[in-house]
Amino acid sequence: MAKVKTQFVCQHCGAVYGKWTGKCENCDEWNSLVEQTLDTGKSVVARARTSGKILEARTLRSISAEDSIKRLSTGINDLDTVLGGGILPGGVILLAGQPGIGKSTLLLQITAAIAKDEPTLYVSGEESANQVRLRAERLGANDSEQLSFVASTSADDIAATIRAGAHKLVIIDSIQTLGLEEITSAPGTVSQITNSSNVIIRAAKEAGAAVILVGHVTKEGSIAGPKVLEHLVDVVLQFEGDRYGGFKVVRAIKNRYGSTAEAAIFEMYEEGLRVVENPSAALLAERQNADGSVVLATLEGTRPLLVEIQALVNSTNFGYPKRTASGFDLNRLNLLIAVLERRTKLNLSDKDIYVNVVGGLKLQDQAADLAICMAIASAAAGRKVDEGTVVFGEVGLGGEVRSVVGVDKRVAEAKKLGFTHAVAPQSSAKNKFITGVGDIRQALIDYVK
Prior knowledge:
The structure is a single chain. By secondary structure, the protein is α/β, with parallel strands linked by helices. The chain has helices at residues 44-51, 77-82, 103-114, 129-139, 155-163, 190-207, 228-232, 279-284, 330-343, 368-381, 407-416, 440-447, and strands at residues 4-10, 16-17, 33-39, 92-97, 120-124, 147-151, 169-173, 210-215, 235-241, 248-255, 263-269, 272-275, 293-300, 303-315, 323-326, 351-357, 389-391, 394-395, 401-402, 421-425, 434-437. It has a nine-stranded mixed beta sheet. The chain is globular and about 75 Å long.
């Protein structure tokens, strides 16, 4: 009989220890080690030396192109674009987002669209059949005869169901609730997530069925579980936004079948998620041209957007000024404030500064730097920026305004909504619509009046 002993595995990084310690030395997390049993019989390496076989290799030219593979349309054109043209049969997609942001709603809408033509299975490890039925009735997704439902947390059973080949698309909500019978640790641990994912991915590849896995996120916003989970799947989709309102954005942070530069923008309604056709107009509909308000021409993937940046500057009541950012990286904000103080005559060391990106969007575009700086300067001086002006440009530590990508798209979107002028880097000044600025000091002198 093989000996059985225990080992301790970190649930954050997967590091293995022979005994329990309070802190993982690899990732510095506290109380993250979980005890697991380990079979110490004949080693896996020793068995592999005698059980392997020689593989038959072929040249790439001899492999026929599978032009007949037809992607599954989600019924949402923007989401199909993010996925590279739709869901590829045999592909595995990981969708992650905050609790309550709308992951289950979006997936039920996708299954309802695909179930019109192909057999689809919705597997829930978190909700009962009645809970899912109530949501399906609200979304109008309960009429299809090809949409099936099962509640299970067994990765073995789910993999066997996928391998049977009866369904073209399988939704699993969520991967953190699944477990394999042979592994003694609880669902959600590193070993369970890794091995359950491997079993399901192998079944999907064998049966040619597309699988969408729902993943949880941590407090920091990263996908929960081991990083290897993101490496195993073919596509990783991030669902971002404010779960209480505003726009919600789905973008691909990994895509083996398409670009990672696309994004789909949604808004939640009673009947489900709906694509925002003209987000720029919606974001600027209630704008008031006051001090601290600047319109930024940004890119969300490859789509141009006009977003209002708001800044509020107040004298601090404490010895240490407060800096708060909503929809913008706080570390980047502190850097820009330091550049403003050093390269201009603004004194912000005794000021509380608040920056808000209207609409609940989270900006990742470096071209937002110039708009942030001008909004802060406008609020601090109590002066307005011209109403017909849009702004974009990256700001360096020397105060210089650097070039950005997608200038033509940004300008075309601004013209479409009636703007008459753009403040941009000097290298982007190709026509009369754009006025180039070389540094942040020049931009503030010329346009914050």
